[in-house]
Amino acid sequence: MFNYLEYIRESNFPHIWCAGCGDGIILKALIRAIDKLGMSRDESVMVSGIGCSSRTPGYMDINTLHTTHGRALPFATGVKLANPDLKVIVITGDGDATAIGGNHFIHAARRNIDLTVLLYNNYIYGMTGGQCSPMTPVGSKASTAQHGNLEPSFNTSGLAIAAGASFVARTDVYHVQQCEKFISKALQKKGFSLVEIMTPCPTAYGRRNKMANPVTMMEWLKDNMVPVAKYDKMTDQEREGKVSAGILCDIDKAEFTAEYDKLIKKVRTE
Amino acid sequence: MTEEQSARKEPAVITVKPEWCKGCGICVAFCPKDVLEMEGGTAKVLRPDDCIKCMLCELRCPDFAITVE
Ligand SMILES: Cc1ncc(C[n+]2csc(CCOP(=O)(O)OP(=O)(O)O)c2C)c(N)n1
Ligand code: SF4
Ligand code: SF4
Ligand code: SF4
């Protein structure tokens, strides 16, 4: 048994998430990762935008900042630059990160600023009742796509890599041990580190897409998340409906706050 | 026998917190040993002796509602 109680704001429980919402599974994986790394909560800050996913920090006994929709990354950038010694964890949804916050997302990755970003990808705007996000798959139904979504979705992990992130991984809440492992790796990496976590939203996505039962959504993850090495060898036809999971990028490169610090020192001695 | 092995041999104590369990059924569906069942909208521990302490129910419960000792 793991004692989560030490890490949560127990008075806010039971949490507000629906039955079978995966967001609680991610929160628990994050808590275990923080615990096993022996991270200081006083030296850590969790920043989120708006959405069901963005309610995560409110459940954790840690320094938290619940900001505005799409703007978690600018707030987190400010926190990190003001005090680079802090560990800054950003919680964001697929809508929060790639629709309203899309520009902030690519530029934070481009700067390679040392933030750990957990992107909860539930394919939908959960909080507002199931509108399409830029990550809703083609053909999926949403309140704004009653007959199926026509727009191709972002490969957000690919976007982060192309923009300049140093660590990018994709995982899901069925494969819960992998999820914890990747969160832990991201927390340890210096630089912009993204973990895209596939998580069920049975209420706003599942109900419209023949997966109203949370167990069906978990089974979908079990059957369709494919290790990236295997995915890379598959034909386009075999890839249909599958999602690759694994570490997609892990490189060492110049990190923004360290470069900024060097610049300050240089200017002061000139 | 290592400490961990002997801990595994002890009978499992599985606890469901009914005030927090939302009855999603995830723990029941993915328990490899069929230890749990849904009853009256919450998870119930029916066959604790069969538990192998894989911890998967505890790891996957979204609601912090089930623990295995
Ligand atoms: C500026 C602004 N525009 C729109 C909204 C309404 N709104 C709240 S949450 C949300 C989308 C949430 O989707 P996502 O980020 O994917 O998070 P989820 O709820 O699915 O976890 C929207 C559009 C808002 N709160 N603020
Ligand atoms: S609406 Fe979806 S994302 Fe929001 S709490 Fe419910 S299941 Fe989770
Ligand atoms: S620990 Fe494993 S075997 Fe035991 S009840 Fe939980 S899922 Fe089943
Ligand atoms: S996984 Fe948790 S919330 Fe869901 S039925 Fe089991 S104990 Fe209840």
Architecture overview:
The complex is a heterodimer of chains A (about 270) and B (about 70). Chain A is built from 10 helices and 8 strands. Chain A is an alpha/beta fold. Chain B has helices at about 5-10, 25-30, 55-60, and strands spanning about 15, 35-40, 40-45, 65-69. The longest helix of chain B is centred in the N-terminal third of the chain and has 7 residues, at about 5-10. Chain B has a single domain, classed as Alpha-Beta Plaits. The interface of A and B includes residues 1, 8, 22 and 219 of A. One iron/sulfur cluster binds next to α3 of chain B.
Topology record:
The complex is a heterodimer of chains A (270) and B (69).
Chain A: H1 23-37, E1 44-48, E2 63-66, H2 72-82, E3 87-93, H3 94-100, H4 102-111, E4 116-121, H5 156-163, E5 167-172, H6 176-188, E6 193-198, H7 214-224, E7 225-227, H8 228-233, H9 236-239, E8 243-250, H10 256-269
Parallel strand pairs in A: 1-2, 1-3, 3-4, 4-6, 5-6, 7-8
Antiparallel strand pairs in A: 5-8
Helix pairs in contact in A: 1-6, 3-4, 4-5
Chain B: H1 3-9, E1 14-16, H2 26-30, E2 36-39, E3 42-45, H3 56-60, E4 66-68
Antiparallel strand pairs in B: 1-4, 2-3
The structure holds thiamine diphosphate (TPP) and iron/sulfur cluster (3 copies).
Q: Which properties best describe this structure?
A:
heterodimer, A: 270 residues, alpha/beta, Rossmann fold, 8 strands, B: 69 residues, two-stranded antiparallel ribbon, two-stranded antiparallel sheet, 25% helix, 20% strand, elongated, binds thiamine diphosphate
